[in-house]
């Protein structure tokens, strides 16, 4: 729209044609209902009837100028794509002939392999390397028409220019309102909210990124719009009844890969008495330990055929029992441990490490992840540092006076 | 200078209106049976006492749309709302007198202890006309865009509009959505046939940009004007009323919803398909 | 005016009519709203005016009341109990309507009627005296305390338990 200032129509009278064109650029609203056409044009038929009535006529499909323009654009694009696809097919056949393969059964994978062979390329970015692909994969995707033949937009938020994005915000708002209403109802009925729904577990996932959101809505949105989205989502997810809307929330979260899922838990075995157990070995400093965990049990602890008093220091006993309190199995398992070498610190640590691994056989993935996060499933690599010659110890120096 | 000129213009308009009213009265007295179609319709609104049979289009065959338009109350909206409803919905509460805009003074009944009270009798008649216009536009297949920037009511407005199958814009207004639509939407532009402003302020200090843009693009508008609005002249069908209280907003939403639904129903009954 | 984007000139109807008169837009191409706005034209806005203040008759009675008396009873928003000033105003207007008392005596008459009904109206002087007595009572707890206390207690007893 080149003309934003008022037209000088007061002073000069332009010729009628030019004038009407100017008006069309300035008042496109007036163009909305223009022609009335028969329905077969919609299917690409010839333009048969162009009717201009005194009143907007009834029972005929009217087509807006916007739709016409859109259809022309689509037609042009389709023609372009047609020639591109034809080129692609010819190229594929040439490539098959070069490689000595059957052109009719030459697949896209064969194309990729052939190009890698014929045109070896060391460029780092894969997008920069030569390729031959279907044009539909390479050309950017186009949004379908957003309005009907009468020029009525499909989406009720069309005029906001970002209907998909704002629709998400609308959904969040009303879902949160729904949860609040439910909470009020529960409160009035004097029911316990925690019994009605479990808290939403979102620790194993994170919000989708800005780019992912952009791809989801297919609209130009700003960083601040993304921040707004995150704030609203956080509000919804932190509601005590959020698990009722878990499905909706999880649409906008990426699942995190659990590091603990990669850990292999020891198998559960059965001994001669029919008790199920698992065992594992652990090391800390110079010590070595082997631990057997029996479940079900009564909380008995046996270390080198003694009870917990094997360690006189309370700190060591506590160290040893820590994995049990994390998993919540204190008093539900029996523990039999053998510990050798080193001192009490090392032995306690080695038993703890072995115990944690053995416990993994009996607990869920979530608790396994908690064990991992609290450092129970990691070997402590610290060792005694050797004494250096010319020094008193590993780091300590002899006393030295200059004079 | 400009203010006095505007005042003179307004008073001239007012006198004109009075004159046309007198003319219409005379017409009735003289039992003149036919007017030219345009002016007769004009007069009919000015003077509600004109009998239906006096209003007749000259020459042309009447279509259903014409018949609907000449009907006094085709959609049955005249007694949809009463003065008491408006009062109960707190429509009469204006802003603090210090915030008053002089263009709104004709619609203010008085000032009670520093708060402006809106003249509900004027509101009622203007509201009824606006509802009628809205229904007629929907009846002819027009699109309606609801605009409201009050964050408190945003979800309610959007919900109602979505149920109606009309269009809403309650989010920040991107400059040029109307005036630069071709570039923003990347198609030949599409415009609504009517903008309804449930509050004409964008922020506390600014008039909504859509008020200006719709006026530039010749899109008629209906607006709820509180006593502090400065854009009364830019709104085609102004309705003085409180735009800050949930009760009044709920009432407006209900009224426009009813009008639009009635119009759509009539449209279906009369078999009007665009 | 036609073709201009100056929104402050004329109305949308006049601008569109201008477009049609100049031939830039044919009658058949007119927008949907054109017929409607033409048939139901917006009412011209009435001229600007001075905004009057709104007063009710009771406002003047109220001012008169507060010139002489103070409000001592608590205002309860949750109950329907009338405050003493409100009772006074109601009685005043009732007497005025009966037209039995000359306007100059109306105020005194209302006071006496309310007093006969058992309501105590506290004047500004009484309130000032009460606070003065109260403060002196605080300073010297021994002196004539019982009488003062008795007096303070009786001030509002009637009204407090009236309802």
TrEMBL record, chain A:
The keyword Protease does not apply. InterPro entries: Ribosomal_Su5_D2-typ_SF (IPR020568), Ribosomal_uS9 (IPR000754), Ribosomal_uS9_bac/plastid (IPR023035), Ribsml_uS5_D2-typ_fold_subgr (IPR014721). One of its GO terms (biological process) is translation. GO terms for molecular function: RNA binding; structural constituent of ribosome. Residues 379-395 have a biased composition (Basic and acidic residues). Residues 378-403 are annotated as: Disordered. Its main location: mitochondrion. One of its GO terms (cellular component) is mitochondrial small ribosomal subunit. It is found in: Mitochondrion. Keywords: Mitochondrion, Ribonucleoprotein, Ribosomal protein, Transit peptide. NCBIfam families: PRK00132.1 (NF001099). Belongs to the universal ribosomal protein uS9 family. This is Small ribosomal subunit protein uS9m. It comes from Biomphalaria glabrata (Bloodfluke planorb).
TrEMBL record, chain B:
HAMAP family: Ribosomal_uS2_B. It holds the Pfam family Ribosomal_S2. GO terms for molecular function: structural constituent of ribosome. One of its GO terms (cellular component) is mitochondrial small ribosomal subunit. GO terms for biological process: translation. Belongs to the universal ribosomal protein uS2 family. It comes from the Eukaryota. This is 28S ribosomal protein S2, mitochondrial-like.
UniProtKB/TrEMBL annotation, chain C:
Residues 2-117 form the Small ribosomal subunit protein mS23 conserved domain. It is found in: Mitochondrion. It comes from the Eukaryota. GO terms for biological process: translation. GO terms for molecular function: structural constituent of ribosome. GO terms for cellular component: mitochondrion; ribosome. InterPro entries: mS23_dom, mS23_dom_met, Ribosomal_mS23_met. Keywords: Mitochondrion, Ribonucleoprotein, Ribosomal protein. Belongs to the mitochondrion-specific ribosomal protein mS23 family. This is Small ribosomal subunit protein mS23. It comes from Biomphalaria glabrata.
